[in-house]
Every structure is written in structure tokens, then in C-alpha cells.
Amino acid sequence: MPDFPPPPPPAPPKKSRTNLIIIGSAVAVIAAVIGTGAVVVNSRDDKGSTTKAAETKPADDTVTAAEEPEPTPSDTGPQVFGLTDTVSYETGVEVSLSKFTRGMSSEYATPENTPYVRFTVKVKNGSTDTVDVTGLTVNCSYGQDGSSSDSIFDTDKGLEGGPETRLLAGRSISVPWGCEFPKGESSLQVEVSPDYESETAIFTGRVK
Predict the structure, then answer these.
(1) pTM for the full predicted model
(2) Nearest C-alpha neighbor of 168 from the set 117, 204, 133, 208
(3) pLDDT, tens only, 76-115
């Protein structure tokens, strides 16, 4: 029989590039994740291998704002004085009450036959200007509920209302005044303004 050459050896098997592609892809994914600041977490269970990506949470920048203090309310109400106090204005004018007595108006008075309290309103001009006391106002109330009190005008008792003159600097004037005041009452409030421009002074107290 003729001699035949021996058969060539079998070619070596080609290496699969699948693993290289998968590994390369995994490296690229990890590099991309790391570049974006994400954290790769690998977990394995009985069903296989899974990969979970959890993003990092930003830091809590919450701040607490300080509370501004509440403004303190200013006392803008009128000041109250006792019946025998002297009220002094910044202009130098002074107002005071004195000589409290009880009485009954006459039949010709307005209002007539009415129990009242009588007192003297004194205005002293300690300023350097003339004070127009024709603008003197006097208003009264009585009782805990502040019942309005009518002024008494009785010429027989010398209760004729306010003055009709101006008060020169350094001088004073005393004006008798009467207000309705029931016999059973003792609480009295008198509001006085010496002229058109001055604030009202409030006097309050008890009259026996």
C-alpha cells in the first residue's frame, strides 16, 4: 500500500471574547459610577448575583433662624392723678383741684334741685406766654361704672362756668365748678383741660 502523509494536528480552539467583553463592560460601569459619586453595593442571594446602586444623600444644611424680640408696647394712655394732685405741663402751666363740698342746686339752676359736688379748679400760668383759659373744659363722671355727670350752672351758688379772660404769664386763676353727684355716690372722676391746646388731665378719687 502507498504511504500517505500523517494527518495534520487539530487546530487549537479559538478563545471566546465574551468574557473579555463582559469584564470590560463591568469595568466601564464601575468607572462611570465612581465618576458620578455613586456607591456600588453587591449583594448575592440564592437566585443569583445582583448589583444595586445607592446614591449618596447631600448633607443636611437646615439652619434655625433666630427670633427677633417682640417690640415693647409704649404707654400712650393718659396719666391719672389723685383728686388733690397738681398736674404740671411741659409749658409750665399747672392745674389743681381743691375745696370739695356737697350741695343741692337751686330751683333756678341747670339742672335744678340736683345734688352735686362743688370744687375749685386752679390754673397757674408758669410759662412765658399768655394762656387762653376761655378754652377751659371740665367734665365729670361718678360711680364704678363711670356714669356721666352734668355740670351745674347756678348763679345763686356762684357756679357760672368757665372764665372769659386770658391768663397772663406768672398769674393764676381759680374757677368754682359743680358737677352732678348723687348723695349715695363717693367715686368721682374729673377731666380738666386748661386751654384749647393742652392735653386733658384726669383726676380721680373718693369724696365723703
Answers:
(1) 0.64
(2) 133
(3) 556 899 999 999 999 999 999 999 999 999 999 999 999 9
